[in-house]
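Entry 12.
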Amino acid sequence: MKTIFLERLFHRQKKCISIRFEKPWDSELVQLIRVLPERHWSNNHKCWYMENTPLNVSRIKEAFADVAHVDTSKLYHVDPVIRSKTDPANVNRERGFTTMIARDDAGIQKYIYYLRDRRYSERTINTYVKAMRVFLSYHHATPANEITQEQIVEFNNRYIIARRLSASFQNQVINAIKLYYHVVHNRNLKPELIKRPKSPKKLPNVLSMDEVAAILK
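Predicted 3D structure (tokens):
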């Protein structure tokens, strides 16, 4: 039996379902999908899509029931907390957040849709989502849309700096926070006001008097 893959898609500022076939132009499946109401083709994503609603999921399953298996594993999959592979020394320090209650799950999902829609790499998406989950878990007592600039500074001082986490992790969090609040909550927080770590400057090698004399000979 053929397989149809459904996956979450954020397209044109809407939550949608992408519909993909094993063979993109399978004539039998294309003919069936054209019967569905409100289905569209996306040239950008190279797939069919519909608005993400329970009714449309049921419609898709019903339309293809006799000819294909409808795989919804990615449609309902919850993205795990991704740990940074570039900072293995930090993994144990951040592990405490994995048991905390997830915050602003709907906002995180919208964030993922946005990043994928803008064609961010999966590596960048995983890094930004992981950074936001750490940040939101730290301020778990405050609703995500009520986080203040001062709380960003507090997180920087009491979590990142206090735990001696890397400069790269700090920059990832700052970039992730700025974009997250712009996309999800339409707020322009200014985490860039936090003093970012500077890359260490290497001192030039200084030759001894004997080495200089040897070169000049």
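Annotation: Residues 167-184 form the longest helix (18 residues). Residues 78-102 have pLDDT under 50 and may be disordered.
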